[in-house]
């Protein structure tokens, strides 16, 4: 575990290594410092580089690529910390050499530094522990406790990179320089992780990946046993899903945010009822619905349901069912035709969402043969009586200037149209319901 003093501790330990190398270079008075490179002019920075020797300057810190994601993730799904944060860095240093050029002192110190760093390219635990004794402000450093040793390696810079680096030192004259990198330096967070109980038992589950596939959504069987794909789907119907690999360990059908248990499950077919408990019919809305097969897995001790496989989403149109009752308001005779205004009460199954679009369609029932049938279309605007309501089971709307007579009633909810009853005789189909009398 390494605290925030790790970078300073590594810099001081590196400086001490350079101090020993400079002192052993044969250059009289050679020392090692760790200050900003200058040209010898007092620029307000504390300390000056040595007259002869080497100066160490940390000019860049970068994340270590190897350990950058070693601690991810550090938190549980509820946001609580289960392991302290931990960051890994590489330290980039510039070594600048000083001395009398006439006697090649900078090059002599450089040569001995390269020899020492090549023979012992790591910062030993003994040295890292020793800096805590020499500098009081580093007494709390604990970088020596890390398992990973800090390695010092030369970082060759080309002429362009070196010139850019020296350009950041204001009014500093270039001196013989090389770059080194110290890696890897860890800094641990100060957060305290919440302890967790040890794992009591372990379970290993190996299952082949078998994704269910829905190919068809069909309506309930007809009295003859035939299943029709084009039969209108309304609340209360039994739907049939056909496809592949539909049977799972625990199989359910998902519509919107609800899941229901089907009444029949086979490998290539599933049947379920739209309004069977616990599927509340009032939660459905007319319009396009998405249906999905969800297969849960039983795992754990004791066993419980876990997320498993999910099929593709298949779409079907849920058609609304409507009944209507008209109450006369007024009437007038125009060109021999009685035109009426009525308040029509519409009752919906499923409930009508307050944000859905509603259209009322009226078609004359059993018109005479000497003229075309009357037909009317009304855009219905409505507001729930209670602002908190999100759906309506019924509403009252006014139709104006409708010729008196019996009419077949249809509604369109978000484009989904209510079906009409074709009558009891399939050999002579004729729409008979739902009807309303306008008078």
Report on the structure:
By secondary structure, the protein is mainly β. The chain is 12% helix and 39% strand. The chain contains 4 helices and 23 strands. The strands form 5 sheets. It has a 6-stranded mixed sheet with strand order 1-2-3-6-5-4. Strands 9, 10, 13, 14 and 15 form a 5-stranded antiparallel sheet that branches. Strand 9 and strand 10 form a beta hairpin. The radius of gyration is 42 Å and the shape is elongated. It starts with 5 loop residues before the first helix and ends with a strand. Residues 40-45 have low confidence and may be disordered.
Short description:
The chain has 439 residues and is mostly beta strands.
Topology:
Blueprint: H1 6-23, E1 31-33, E2 53-63, E3 86-98, H2 105-119, E4 122-123, H3 125-134, E5 150-154, H4 159-167, E6 177-188, E7 213-218, E8 238-244, E9 250-255, E10 258-260, E11 264-265, E12 269-273, E13 287-299, E14 304-310, E15 314-318, E16 321-334, E17 337-353, E18 358-364, E19 375-380, E20 391-403, E21 405-413, E22 416-417, E23 435-438
Parallel strand pairs: 1-2
Antiparallel strand pairs: 2-3, 3-6, 4-5, 5-6, 7-8, 8-12, 9-10, 9-13, 11-12, 13-14, 13-15, 16-17, 17-20, 18-19, 18-21, 21-22, 21-23
Helix pairs in contact: 1-2, 1-3
